[in-house]
Amino acid sequence: MEKPKFYLTTAIAYTSRKPHIGNTYDIVLADMIARYKRMAGFDVYFMTGSDEHGQKIEEYAKAEGISPKAYVDRVSSEIRAVWDSMNVTYDKFIRTTDPEHEKTVQKIFKKLYDQGDIYKGTYEGKYCVPCESFFTASQLKDGKCPDCGRDVVDAKEEAYFLRLSKYQDRLLAYYEENPDFFAPESRRSEMINNFLKPGLSDLCVSRSSFTWGVPVSFDDKHIIYVWIDALSNYITGLGYDPDGSSERYRHYWPADLHVIGKDIVRFHTVYWPIILMALGEPLPRQVLGHPWLLFGEDKMSKSKGNVLYADELAARFGTDAVRYYLLSEIPFAQDGSITYDSFIAKYNTDLANTLGNLVNRSIAMTNKYFGGTVTRAAAPTDGPDAELTALAEETVREYRRLMDTYHNADTLDLLLSLARRCNKYIDETTPWVLARDEAARPRLNDVLYRLLECLRRLGILLRPFLPATADSILSQLQVPEAMATLESAEAPFGVPESFSVGAPTPLFARIDAEKVLAELKAEQEKAAAAEAKPAPEGIAFLPEITIDEFAKIDLRVAEITACEPVKRSKKLLKLTLNDGTGEPRTVCSGIAPWYSPEQLTGKRVVLVSNLKPATLCGVESCGMILAADDIGADGEESVKVLFVDGVAPGSRVR
């Protein structure tokens, strides 16, 4: 019998910076769902990836003196490394710089343009650079970006627009016909009341003020904006093509679940469905807009110094401990919170004391009192035996209901409740007392069997959450794979005829909170001291380097013999330099806002001559010229190139 398919995705991570632990919740939650669906017999395809175009990335790359592609290559690798540190089982990691994706995005844009769903116009409004989003004045919150709260700027540029308004009524009808489209359901009213009822404005889907993006195939002044570029990954990654899609696409689409943060629900429940409607493709079955993980009561921000990284936590405390915290701390519809104190407290209470201690002493007692083997217990009639058996069976039934609706925190609470009841059962039955009486050995056998049967069920049910821990539990119980399935956990209590356990292996060592918190504080202070140097007000210096490190930088005087603007860029100038070698050198510099070619030709500048070449807007740049940031009396920032007229080209600067 063919398995039912289940296709789920995460929001693709933006390659501006390494993702913090709040960003990591997406991938861990989706992995939990993927693992559960595989256990439940589904043919699962699980995709994640990285979103790699946009103005912010272009600016970050420029600040580092490298190409945008080199920048996103590095950050995308960091994202994937963090995902892998969480032991996630994705089937594909898509990048929006993948050639296949870019080609298909161009086809999608052209198809929508040809059929009249995209048209050319002019955008004038408020623009948030960090969010790369346009807003009308009425959409602003206290005059600032409604998404991130930062300042916006006035912007006007030629752009292509997607006719959202054309599909508004059809989208509302889809909401009505598919009541499960939103999870949690409260997201539905947000979209209807805040966006659809006031009336959808057509969406800007191209940009011409920067160049790092997928070019519009029929208009090289424009690049395709994030909404069509990034959102389309969910179908391009399966092999969608307007000219003929792959078998994989036809098998897995539509998506059964998009796992995203609550801040991008609008993009996935308004813009994305309309793009699909315009393409004539089926819509996703459900969008899960999960809450955030806060640091204490604040959003994580590098500027606030409250950023934690999942891979660093995993290196210190273990991958499953991080997965457990993320999946247990964020309720279905409410934000969660993390601090080092709360992480360690939950680790010690739930993982070390409750779960780890239960597994360790149950297996140890089985080895001590029965040489590692116990046989099936008699059916209980009343008292603690019956209570524990009933709870174990009810736990499995409730597990299915909660997991099918993605209530991960409630599910873990359910499983920990069973573990706590097992610990209480040990206190009630006192195996160490029973062991003193030879006549009580049958009773002792039954007590230990019930504990091990509960542990078998916990090992199975914990697999989507704590895969390594669950496998360790089942391995210590020496449970064959046929008895480690979800189906076997759902069978009546006491399926195995016997248990023959191995040696007990501790799952979670208790953390000395005071010691670890002191170590963390010392590390943070050391890191802060390395980054911060005493400086005049308003000036920040980089960390110290040695004279040997400085000697690796080859600074030379060069004369600008020719200068011209770089096509498709408003910031870059192409400089042709005489650096004294006899061969002309090309350097791109982002100084067009402050200098014209006429002002630079004939000037002599300081060149970083041994900088690794980078391709910027199709031009190979072999070096960098030195310039200084300058803030005038009016507070306006500008850039001043360092000129060294009168010094011969090729002269070394040292």
Write up this protein.
There is one protein chain. With about 650 residues, this protein is an alpha/beta fold. It is built from 22 helices and 28 strands. The strands form eight sheets. Strands 1, 2, 3, 4, 8, 13 and 14 form a seven-stranded parallel beta sheet that branches. Helix 1 (about 20-40) links the parallel strand 2 (about 15) and strand 3 (about 45-50). Helix 14 packs antiparallel against helix 15. It is globular, with a radius of gyration of 30 Å. Mean pLDDT is about 90; it is low at about 535-540.
Furnish the topology, listing elements before pairings:
Layout lengths: L4 E6 L2 E2 L6 H19 L3 E9 L3 H10 L3 H18 L6 E4 L3 H16 L3 E11 L4 E3 L17 E10 L5 H10 L4 E2 L2 H11 L6 E2 L1 E2 L6 E3 L2 E6 L1 H6 L1 H4 L10 H6 L4 E5 L3 H15 L7 E4 L2 E3 L14 H8 L1 H11 L6 E3 L1 H31 L2 E3 L7 H22 L3 H22 L1 H4 L6 H21 L5 H10 L9 H4 L8 E3 L12 H19 L15 H5 L3 E11 L7 E6 L5 E6 L7 H4 L3 E5 L5 E3 L2 E3 L2 E2 L1 E5 L5 E5 L10 E2 L1
Parallel strand pairs: 1-3, 1-13, 2-3, 3-4, 8-14, 13-14, 15-16
Antiparallel strand pairs: 5-6, 5-7, 7-9, 10-12, 11-12, 17-18, 19-20, 19-22, 19-28, 20-21, 22-25, 23-24, 26-27
